Amino acid sequence: MKKLILTVVLFTGLLIVLPALLVLFYSGTSTHPLAAPASDPDSDTISSYQDEAEEYKPGPEVVVPVYREGQDKVEDVELEDYVAGVVSAEMPAAFEMEALKAQALVARTFVVKQMKLGDDESLPEDAIVTDTTSHQVFKNEEEWEQEWGAEAEDRMEKINSAVEATAGEIITYDGSPITASFFSTSNGHTENAEEYWETSLPYLQSVESPWDVGSPRYENTKRYPVAEIEQRLGVSIPEGTDLQENIERTEGNRIASVTIGNTTFHGREIRELLELDSSDFEWQREGEEIVIHTKGWGHGVGMSQYGADGMAKEGNNYRQIVDHYYQDVEIAEDSSHMEAYVLNDKDEETES
């Protein structure tokens, strides 16, 4: 009888202890990706894997609604693809890599600023930019493949590398994205914003840009019939008139104002009415023609593209280029910081 009782007790004990031993044995060999390795008793390993997963969690996709004027439609373009499409259209792919990076940073900042301000009511649907010089010229990769042919792959690879190197970065002043204006070629100096647009911005002030002399559009000469100039400007220009009289210049050495007879024009007005490359010009009457010599190409405010390329050739990186052409700015590197802008937080005050 005693033997029978002892046998039952031992059998019952085995039923209780054996499963526990099996659990202990196999718990050290689990292959679950979040399990702590058997060789590492640190219980914090699980949370470190979870933190790593959260760190690489992608943020919300940022899409830019672009009005394609030639096609009369709105195209939704992922932000970094849009930046690449702008860089490819606005700056020669043959430029130095650091210049292309600077252009990518400027292009991204420009469109983030537009998104921060909200939809443009003058554009159809929910578009915030056009694909023209009214905002930034844009072409997608398919369009460049058609235009560049066999060279498309190499050129787009270079441009995409520049975009990726600056991904998520924007230029800010006092915590907000700047008005990231740029142009092709300076006359040796950039222009104060207020002297072209009549709106002062502390980071858009005149700086030297001597590298532009290498641009094919650094200087240009155009000839017009006197009658055409008179018609476009609505003035009379008698023979013997010295057009170089009564001229005032800006800090950037462009025309601030010029007076013809009793009419005074802003330099920008002359440039636009006569479709000149620049508002830095000299002109004179020669018989029945007006000869106009310009220096530079574009409005002159912000970053000079040929200047950026010249700086890059001298060994400057894109941050140094940006710091030269935009004063007292910062480059915000946190992509989540950038994404906050494109959510159009109306509570944040925007620049005028």
Automatic annotation (TrEMBL):
Task: Tell me where on the tree of life, at the top rank, the source sits.
Answer: Bacteria
Q: Which InterPro entries match?
A: Bact_Sporulation_Assoc, SpoIID/LytB, SpoIID/LytB_N, Spore_II_D_firmicutes
The region called Disordered is annotated at 34-56
For this UniProt entry, which segments traverse the membrane? none
- GO biological process assignments: sporulation resulting in formation of a cellular spore
Residue ranges constituting the Sporulation stage II protein D amidase enhancer LytB N-terminal domain according to the UniProt record:
68-173
Q: What is this protein called?
A: Stage II sporulation protein D
